[in-house]
């Protein structure tokens, strides 16, 4: 009888330690959502930029050959992110903890995203 209590106590301690480590690591590690391959981008001036609704005429004034495509196609064509816009965080989603990401994966929290399923941006 005493061995069963000792075994349960050890198992309980191991489970508590594992949960503490998972919550601790999950809370400290920050993740940033990257755009999906089907995200809409504008290719202009040798870079690709977020396809901000209503800004297509402005891009065409800067570059008459500007066009809208997907992120995957723009990268396959050899274009890169505009470094000025990349620093401002326009290409990344909100920062969130790894724990929140895990909750989203298991359906315990609503997924926060900057992109709609069709690749358009949520502004």
* N-to-C SSE string, H for helix and E for strand: HEEEHEHEHEH
Distance between the termini: 63 Å
Characterize the largest beta sheet: strand count, sense, and whether it forms a barrel. 4 strands, mixed
The helix tally amounts to 5
Count of distinct structural domains: 1
Total beta strand runs: 6
Radius of gyration: 22 Å
Biggest sheet strand line-up? 4-2-3-5
Structural shape: rod-shaped
Q: Estimate percent helicity.
A: 40-55%
Low-confidence stretches: none
**Quaternary assembly:** single chain
State the secondary-structure class.
alpha+beta
pLDDT average, as an integer?
79
Instruction: Classify the beta-strand content into a percent band.
Output: 15-25%
List keywords for this structure.
123 residues, alpha+beta, two-stranded antiparallel ribbon, 6 strands
Write structural notes for this entry.
With 123 residues, this protein is of the alpha+beta class. The protein has one domain. Helix content is 43%, strand content 17%. The chain has five helices and six strands; from the N terminus they run αβββαβαβαβα. It has helices spanning 2-28, 56-62, 71-76, 83-87, 98-105, and strands at residues 30-32, 40-44, 47-50, 67-70, 80-81, 95-97. It has a four-stranded mixed beta sheet. Strands 1-6 form a two-stranded antiparallel sheet. Helix 1 packs across helix 5. The protein is rod-shaped and about 80 Å long. The mean pLDDT is 79.
